[in-house]
Amino acid sequence: MTAQTVQQGDLVTVIGLEVHVQLETDTKIFCRCSTEQTDDPNENVCPVCLGLPGALPVLNEGAVEAAVKIGKAIDAEIPEETRFHRKNYYYPDLPKNFQITQYDEPICQEGELEISVEGERRDVRIERAHLEEDPGSLQHVGGSIDTADYTLVDYNRAGTPLMEIVTAPDFRSASEVRAFLAELEEVLEYLGVFDAGRDGSLRIDANLSIIEGEEADENGEIGIDALEAANRTEVKNISSHKGAEKALAYEETRQKNAIKRGRVVEQETRHWDESRGITVSMRSKEEEKDYRYFEEADLPPLRVSHWKDEISIPELPTARRERFRSEYDLNEEAASKLTSTKQVADFYETIADEFDPDLAATWVADNLLGELNYRDMEITDIEDRLEEVTRLVELVAEDEITAKNARETVLRDMLDDEQDPDSIVEEAGLGKTDDDEVQSAVVEAIEENPDAVEDYESGDDGAINFLVGQVMQKTGGSADPGDVNQLLRAELEK
């Protein structure tokens, strides 16, 4: 935590998170129903995920592997044995009226995740991460949760494997929460256990308290007594790190305003209504005892000691970012862009192994990612065209086409028309003009534009840009502007 001093009368924001991550498995956690998204309601269901009498759960091995990978990535303790429990509550999207989850013996315990806050790296404590099944989904027709005409229930999602990651109350602002969630998403995608493109793949419940006049310790942490005494508001229905920042900024302001006006902040569960940008009251907040946890009798204890020895994880984004900076001598901004996803980092390294790392960084981080972003595309959309992108960089590296033509014509035509770079260069006549032709164009531009020459000789260095443009027109844009600039200056100095 960042050190802070809290004076009497200060209002300190304290936030803890429960992050529900949908794991990337083909089937649900306790049955063989597909996890594929479908528009047809209640299609991917069976007696197990519907909770019909006599149906017994069978644990999905892939979900356990994903959980162990997450545990290793957050440097958590993975016990020799873990077990499942029933969490009892009544809600329309919960077909069994209980949820199979983990209680006091979760698969991951006491981990941490390093994040960057205002340029400073620090650790966020993770108290636990456990496996559980997802409920179904509710569709509010004619409005939001508090204004809908009626609500439909779809059980396609019921039984989808989730990992719930519970942090300590280590956040002091909504912006810190956003930084944590962005870092967590990166890590999960590197592990290959999570797909951010899936609808509802990341859902956040945030507990926010406002504490008055307590002294923070040297690590900036609020005393445990004050934390336990404060009324917590749980904010649900947050589905992104951007949404989390907005929701918690609103809730922080709402609670502080209430305290300043002398009102008591109720301990309750609130719903984030993204369309209105507000939180609305749902119900009084449950306590742990209300769920009446007891051990799941249909699932035996799970021994995971051999899993943690056999399962390995890839190089994670923070480590890869630092390696890119040292190995390829990249600045922090470029390294961050190039490690934003594992696919981008792999794409870059393949090209950097063949060409100058700076040239490869410019083409992947700036040119390629910029053009993909403009088209609302991802690097995964062109993974099968790596050889074509490599060839384009080769054309620039070997001085066969100008960087400008490569970027503004060839790359764009490659993405829009799915042509290969050599065909585009040939059809558009973008091959570089030979030196004699460029020199002739330079001489002609000087002879045809005496006013610009006079301006240049009078000290107006900007006139050279006009002359460069004239040469580029004469060469059809196939000359290198930097080379033309030098040739013009040399000719004018004669």
Low-pLDDT runs of 5+ residues are: 1-8
Mean pLDDT: 88
Put simply, the count of helices is 17
Q: Cα-atom Rg, whole angstroms?
A: 29 Å
- End-to-end span in angstroms? 65 Å
Helix share of residues?
A: 25-40%
What structural category arises from helix and sheet content?
alpha+beta
Shape: elongated
Query: How many E-type strands?
Result: 15
**Fraction of residues in β-strands:** 15-25%
Largest sheet: 8 strands, mixed
The strand order across the widest sheet is 5-6-9-1-10-11-12-13
Give structural notes.
It contains 17 helices and 15 strands. The protein has 494 residues and is α+β, with helices and mostly antiparallel strands. A hairpin with a 4-residue loop joins strand 12 (268-273) and strand 13.
SSE map:
Elements: E1 11-22, H1 47-50, H2 61-73, E2 81-82, E3 85-88, E4 98-101, E5 108-117, E6 120-133, E7 137-141, E8 150-154, E9 161-167, H3 174-191, E10 202-212, H4 224-229, E11 233-238, H5 241-260, E12 268-273, E13 278-284, E14 294-295, E15 302-303, H6 305-310, H7 317-327, H8 332-338, H9 342-352, H10 357-374, H11 386-397, H12 403-417, H13 421-428, H14 435-448, H15 450-457, H16 463-474, H17 481-492
Parallel strand pairs: 11-12
Antiparallel strand pairs: 1-9, 1-10, 2-15, 3-4, 3-14, 5-6, 6-9, 7-8, 10-11, 12-13
Brief write-up:
This protein has 17 helices and 15 strands. With 494 residues, the chain is of the alpha+beta class.
Give the tags.
8-stranded mixed β-sheet, disordered N terminus, 39% helix, elongated, 20% strand, alpha+beta, 494 residues, 3-stranded antiparallel β-sheet
